[in-house]
Amino acid sequence: MTEQTAFNIVKNHLLTQMTKSMEENEFGDTQCLYRGPNGTKCAIGALITDEEFETIEDARCRYLGVYELETLQITSLQGLTMDFLEELQIIHDRYEVHDWKNQLEVFAKKYNLQYE
């Protein structure tokens, strides 16, 4: 997958979903998820096919960070650097939803991507 294609998918997904993919863990803390309640997906979850996500869930890896996903060799993420993916994940995980559009614009400029 090219960076531009991945960016387009993530941008369209996040700006349509407009809510974080998260749940409360057993300690009462909220945790972002690749796939969350009510069909929500984080930035990286939007790039992973349903079939590949089943493998992640089967391996009990739903809480892994992006760099840890690299060991699973997820086909739909091939061609993308872990740094690129981590920065997309940070937009979802660390910024408020109302800041996503601006953060995606900054991200696009940094990576010389078109923001359509």
Notes on the protein architecture:
With 116 residues, the protein is mainly alpha-helical. The chain contains five helices and two strands, in the order H-E-E-H-H-H-H. A hairpin with a 5-residue loop joins strand 1 and strand 2.
Gist of the model:
The protein has 116 residues and is mostly helical.
What descriptors fit this protein?
mainly alpha; single chain; two-stranded antiparallel sheet; 5 helices; 2 strands; 116 residues
Fold topology:
Blueprint: H1 3-17, E1 22-24, E2 30-32, H2 50-58, H3 66-69, H4 82-94, H5 100-110
Antiparallel strand pairs: 1-2
Helix pairs in contact: 1-5, 4-5
Low-confidence stretches are none
The proportion of residues forming helix, as a percent range, comes to 40-55%
Q: What fraction strand?
A: 5-15%
Q: How many runs of DSSP E, i.e. beta strands? A: 2
Radius of gyration: 14 Å
Main β-sheet description = 2 strands, antiparallel
- The whole-number mean of residue pLDDT values reads 90
H/E topology pattern:
HEEHHHH
First-residue to last-residue Cα separation: 18 Å
Spatial arrangement of strands, main beta sheet? 1-2
The coarse overall form would be: globular
Number of domains: 1
Provide a count of the helices.
5
* Coarse structural class: mainly alpha
